[in-house]
Amino acid sequence: MIKKRALLFGVVGGIGSGKSFATAALRAFGFPRFDADAEARRLFDDPTILDVLRNRWGADVVSPDGTVDRRRLAEIVFAPTDEAKVELDFLNRTTRPPLFVRFRRWLDAVRASDAEFAVLDAPLLFEVGWESEVDFVIFVEASRATRVRRVAERGWSPEELDRREANQLPLAVKRERADFVLVNDADSPTPDAAAKRIAEIVADARRRRDA
After folding, report:
1. In the predicted model, what is the mean pLDDT of residues 44-73?
2. Distance from the CA of 166 to the CA of which of 41, 85, 159, 192 falls in 20 to 30 A?
3. In a domain, 107, yes or no
């Protein structure tokens, strides 16, 4: 029997929509996950990349312990100025190519395994042009009021949320381009409801695969 390759779910949504909620429900099925944000943070452990950032923005972008000062970096690339957009573009050009290498290495390993599905947790899936790598996109939906409340727990203001999302595709566009929607608004769905919706999505993906 010919082995079927693992199909890849891409998970997207607005900041504070609860994408980790969706990926946790998918991982409960035993599907492996690539967390693009976590891997991007690990890139900052690379001395070569640290040197690039230090040369661009000065020594204060690196903390005394030798790690990136993420707060200082955010102040530079998410400031409400035209210059910040240039700096964000520089950061993206520095980190995205090696991040894609790590992703492809992971995906090749997954597809050499017996995994049926895998999960790409990449909030900027469309922005970085990785949508061609995935088979199905899940959009996690939550109202702005809910997302503002959630990001306040990170110490972000509503203005900070808006500034960061201004660098992304509109949520309506992401929703339109998705194959499935998981509503994660307010205090719902409950874990059981989310698991049920994810089970429906997985079953639908299997039907589409086998059609």
Report:
1. 91
2. 41
3. no
Alpha-carbon gap, residue 121 to 12, rounded angstroms: 7
Same domain? For 91 and 158 the reply is: no
Condensed to tens digits (0 to 9), the pLDDT of residues 174-200 reads 999 999 999 887 655 566 777 788 899
DSSP labels for 7-24? EEEEEEE-TTS-HHHHHH
Task: DSSP for 126-142, please give it.
Answer: TTTT-GGG-SEEEEEE-
Strands 33-35 and 117-121, by their bridges, are parallel
Q: For residue 1, give its domain range.
A: 1-32+113-211
**Last residue of a domain, which of 98, 124, 140?**
98
Coil/strand/helix, residue 33: strand
